[in-house]
Structure formats: C-alpha cells, structure tokens
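Following up on my earlier thread - several people asked me to post the actual chain instead of describing it. Fair enough. Here it is, all 260 residues.
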Amino acid sequence: MIGGLARGLFYSLFNPSSFVAARTDTYASERLARLRLTARLTVIYFLNLLLYAIPLTLAGFGDVGGTTAPTAFAGLVAPVVGNPDSAWRFVSSLVQNSAFLTAAAALTLITFHTGVIATRSSQGFLQTLHTVVYSTSAYLAAIFTAVWYLSTSTAVEVADGLLIYWQAEFVYFFIDVLGAPVGLPGGRPSPVEVSQLSTGGTVAIALLVVALLYYLYSLYLGSRINHHTSRFTAGLVVSIVAVSPAIYVVGSILAATTLP
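Reply from S.P.:
Thanks for posting it. Predicted structure:
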C-alpha cells in the first residue's frame, strides 16, 4: 500500500498523463464489469478522501471545539472510546473536512462530463469518473490543503488576507456586473499590500497556484487521453470546468435577489 501511494505521488508530480489515464481496454461493455469498475473507482476516491481528511482533522483543521456528543452517539461509542465528546468533535471535523472536497469533486464530475458530452467526444462515464477521481484525489486535495493552511496559520496571515481579497473581488465582480443590491457579510474588502507577504506566505500562494495548474492540466489530459479529444476540444472541456465557480456565484446572486 505504501509503495502504491509513493508510486501514485511520483506519477502525479512527474507523469500526470499516466496518473489520470484510464485503462479503457478493461472497461468492458457488460453491465456487471462496469459496475465493478465503478465500485472500484468509488472506493479509491473515498480511500484517498480519508488520506486527505484524516491528517487535516488530526492537525486541528475544521475543529468544532466546545460541542458535546448527542446522546445516541455517546451511548454507541462510550464502550469503545473514553471521551464521546472528543470522538464526536473528531467525526464532525472529519465530515466537514471531507464535505468541501466531495462537493468540489461532484461539481467537477458534472461539469467535466457535461463538457465531453456537449463537444460530442464522450467515450463513456467511466472514463470521466476515472479522470475526476484521480485529479481530485491528488491535485484538488492539494489545493484545499493549501487553502486550509492559509486560513488557519498565523504565520501567513497576510497571504490569507490576499486570498480572501481575491475571492471577494471575484464575487463582487459579478455583483457589479449584474447590478445586484447584495453584498458579502464582511463587505467589500480593502486591498492587501503584497509587499508585506512573508516568505512562508509567498511559498504557500505559489504552491496553491501550482496545484491549481496541475489540476486543470490533469483534466485536460483526462479529456485528451480518456476521451480521445483534440487539443482544442480538451481546452473547451477544461474551460467549462473552470467557469463553473462563476456559474455558481451568478446563480447564488440571482437566487438571493429573486427568491423571497
């Protein structure tokens, strides 16, 4: 298992084309075989999800301190663990740390497969599932880890402020374009002085950008290799995935301004 993880890490960094390539010759047409492959990819995703979420949770990310375990949960785990409240906080943090990545993976899956269908290049859902499972398990998980670090470490507060500023400006761009009478809870943020970035903050932002580029490139390779698309078509598919945050923001703004 350790050897497989090391090999996967090596390929994800130095040979991403092999990392995301689906063995399409094994994707048989029989329903049972396809179901087995779907189950296998699902298991791989959740194992990788735990490998991502458990270290974050043990490090204190997403900690919901001060909460007490529900009676039913406490009665269930009390014979096994000494402190049901601590176990409940761990489980709650683990679920929270896993939920964001899972939601982003689901959005990637939907938009990526929509892209290959819209460009009439789909070779099957399993090819998409393989691409998304491997790209999100490695590169998207790295992005989320970097964001968690920036948002919680006091050593990179300026870098975190810069990241929040970029995110808020992204949202306010669409608010301004739509002329919507809404705003973020904290209001429009003030610009952050980039010269105040620490070395650690600069490195963290750089790693975040590199992980983002790897993520988009892995989706490009998944489209090219697993769905046999041209370079132009693969670029279109990745563009559809890339604009999904903008679609989400616009949808949220419209919902906030039109729904009662």
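The chain has one domain: 23-258. That should answer part of your original question.
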